[in-house]
Amino acid sequence: MNVQVTPLDGVLLIAPKVFGDARGFFLETFRARRYAEAGIPDPFVQDNHSRSARGVLRGLHYQIERPQGKLVMVTKGAVFDVAVDIRRNSPTFGQWFGAELNDDNHHQLYVPPGFAHGFCVLSEQADFLYKCTETYAPDLERSIIWNDPDIAISWPLEAPSLSAKDAQAPRLKDVPPADLF
Length: 181
Fold this sequence. Notes:
This protein is mainly beta. The protein has two helices and 13 strands; from the N terminus they run E-E-E-E-H-E-E-E-E-E-E-E-E-E-H.
């Protein structure tokens, strides 16, 4: 696999080796030792699968007290996937990294604890899989508004379909300091 270090410390873009021929393809999506050697040491404790339609934007989500690291990939369709650094003392606080993940490039993004995460769907439909280093706790989940002008993410859509919760999320500057890392 090829691991690309991004401008955000700990966020990794991973291109697994894909073995393909006329019959299809095979790729290894995870092997603990190999991923630990690449800088992803935390054990994963929960796997999730979501399906969304074109134009859906989910995020920017994070979890306090029991923060989650996420290893994300798309098995069907295409998404623009984003990590935002919300570690108060980080030199890249408030900065973002984004990459297209799709069923052709098979790329994965590792988003460590201390980052908000979100994605928008570029294809008619997308199946999004992610491994988490901590279990989901709805009472600990927080959000930052997707179009925060201080973060200035270059989303590839202008009017996404949002959940009510995501549409009412605060800007990063309005998040209580106790809810940041």
